[in-house]
Amino acid sequence: LYDCAHGAGLAVIMPAWMEFVCKHDVMRFCQMATRVFGVDMDFADPEKTAREGIRRFRTFLHSIGMPINFAELGAKEEDI
Questions:
Q1: Fewest Cβ atoms nearer than 10 Å: which of 4, 14, 55, 77?
Q2: pLDDT score of 40
Q3: Closest Cα partner for 1 from 74, 66, 68, 78?
Q4: How would residue 3 be classed by pLDDT, with cut points 50, 70 and 90?
Q5: Residue 1 has pLDDT above 80, yes or no
Q6: Where are the domains of the chain?
């Protein structure tokens, strides 16, 4: 519909999916946050660590020129 590359589409949906699924496997996202993005583990609030990792992932995607929302893909609200 929008003639976007597979990776660009994933860049838009992956962080939202990660936020949705995070609460079901917080420690998996903590591992990603600490191992990939160097986030300090907050043992008192692991979900905070996971959310920071997802935030840094979204920032990374944007830094390499990937779209991070449907508007950047050219989607209109009525199309969603």
A1: 77
A2: 99
A3: 74
A4: confident
A5: no
A6: 6-79
From the list 55, 78, 65, the residue with the least C-alpha distance to 8 is: 65
Tokens encoding 39:
């986030």
Instruction: Using only the alpha carbons of the chain, give its radius of gyration.
Output: 14
Quote the CA–CA distance of 27 and 50 in Å, as a whole number. 8
Give the separation between CA 58 and CA 63, rounded to whole angstroms.
9
Provide the residue type at 1 as one letter.
L
CA distances from 72 to 26, 33, 75 (A): 29, 25, 7
| Residue 40 CB burial class (10 angstroms; 0-12, 13-18, ≥19) | exposed
